[in-house]
Amino acid sequence: EKSSTFAADFIMRKYARTETRTRNTIIKTLFLWLLGNIETLFRLFSQMQKNNFIIEVNHLSKKFEDGKYALNDVSLQVQKGEFVTILGPSGCGKTTLLRCIAGFQVASEGDILLKGKDVTLTPPHKRPVNTVFQKYALFPHLNVFNNVAFGLKLKKIDPKTIAKKVRQALKMANLTGYEEREVDTLSGGQQQRVAIARAIVNNPEVLLLDEPLSALDLKMRHDMQIELKELHEKLGITFIYVTHDQEEALTLSDRVVVMNEGKIQQIGSPTDIYNEPQNCFVADFIGESNILDGTM
User: Fold this and answer.
1) Which residues contact 79 (CB under 8 A, 6 or more apart)?
2) Which of 253, 225, 250, 226 is nearest to 239 (CA)?
3) Residue 31 and residue 263: Cα distance in Å, rounded?
4) Are 212 and 130 in contact (CB under 8 A)?
């Protein structure tokens, strides 16, 4: 790579000194140089793509004592800042995959990399990820402020910094002014925002969300979808979102991972998943469809 960079710099310096050389000759020279270094360029491009993956799941399997697989040879790469939704019916393995990434479950086979570092056996509190659970998991004896500040206090951060970070997180979650409220006096949507604020206050590099809107009514769920999308754009961090709601997945995601029976059926943008399903399961699960047998 160093020699290739040197060659490019040499050509540009020579061009700057030699006014008589024509633009076409310079273009031809660069083109010939590119042809001679095509392998180096491809290697650099591949390395750049690989460096942009914040999460890499490689051939992950999770086998239970009864011999059944919750995950069966699952591989997935997630880029920095991406909003990825894992979509599938109940029992397909989507929550198990999320829990393996979070560190709450250990895979039987395969490995998980975060920013290129193997964290397959790393405990949850040492991973740069936070999880928003389906049932919120708020502390009923603590008010909103102390629920959000709980993780920061465990890290023994000074009180002034904690107060500042909590206020910022509550502002992000549209909960300014709720600091002293008891959590059991809040609505379902407000409790979910408290759970999200508690997750983002530690500045995680990845936010994992396990069906966080499933307990809300239809209108509140739609409102929270908009808020989640806006929050993702504000924070710029990676979101991995688990749901069985097709509309939710297609609305929120940059990419959708469709799972069934412990295996990934298709990965693609919402448009690709909807318009070009790779098999009958994806076609039938994503939307209403007429599937006809035929011969080509």
Assistant:
1) 52, 53, 54, 238
2) 253
3) 44
4) no
Residue 242 has, within 13 A of its CA and on its CB side, a CA count of 23
Alpha helices in the chain (DSSP H): 2-17, 23-36, 38-51, 94-102, 144-154, 159-172, 188-200, 218-235, 246-252, 270-275, 280-286
With contact defined as beta carbons under 8 Å apart, do 113 and 119 qualify?
Answer: yes
Helix (H), strand (E) counts: the chain = 11, 10
H/E stretch holding 55: strand 53-63
Helix/strand/coil for 182: strand
Q: What is the pLDDT along the chain (296 residues), one digit of tens a residue?
A: 445 555 555 545 554 544 444 556 666 666 666 666 666 555 555 554 555 799 999 999 999 888 899 999 999 999 999 999 999 999 999 999 999 999 999 999 999 999 999 999 999 989 999 988 887 788 999 999 999 999 899 888 999 999 999 999 999 888 899 999 999 998 888 888 899 899 989 888 999 999 888 877 788 888 888 888 988 998 889 999 999 999 999 999 999 999 999 999 999 999 999 999 999 899 989 876 677 778 87
